[in-house]
Amino acid sequence: MSVPIRPVLVIYSHGRNPPLNPAPDLKYDIRSIPNPPKALRDTSDGRSKRIREHLLSEPKFSQKLELVEKDIRIRMDTMIAEITAKSQGIGGEEEAEAQTQTQAQAQAQITTPSNQEATHLNEEHSDTEDARRSTNEVLLRVGCNCALGHHRSVAFVCELAQRPWPRDWHVEVIHRDLEKKRSGGVRVKQKASWKDRGKRWSEHNSNHDTDMHFD
Question: Checking CA distances to 119, which of 54, 92, 172, 199 falls within 20 to 30 Å?
Fold first, then answer.
């Protein structure tokens, strides 16, 4: 009896650091796609319709979507074919084993009728195993990263999830870094630090010039 295949596609948006752990089966860097205007980024994240429409107008964005969709379909088809072949092999072995067990049980019932209870327990165990093997999940994990995981990768994953995937696929979206605070504060601190260094360097040179004496 063939085991149903359940393809599961999980797509992650995330920032560049840290990388996804465990590593995804497929990963894509979206940073080559131009960022949306700052005015849009300041008020919305990548789930925004305005940001997604802006990015869809970028040829690089649309081309990347088509490329990634193609890669996913090829990889999923390969994984399904592999697990189907494996299941068929296991199914053949199990069928032969089941036939052997049936013959042995029939012989045992002829010689010892009391083995009927043991046969019933074996059937219950077999039913439990069949329930556990009722589905074969094929899991494909795809990671899409931009700089911070707030805009480009989020919009990309949202659009990717809406591609015309086969109806029997289960598609799940995870925005890993969307709820993290924006790093604007960090950048401001970095700029302030650089400015402070420049100021101290300027003051050092000024003091050095003052201390110089010419004879």
Answer: 92
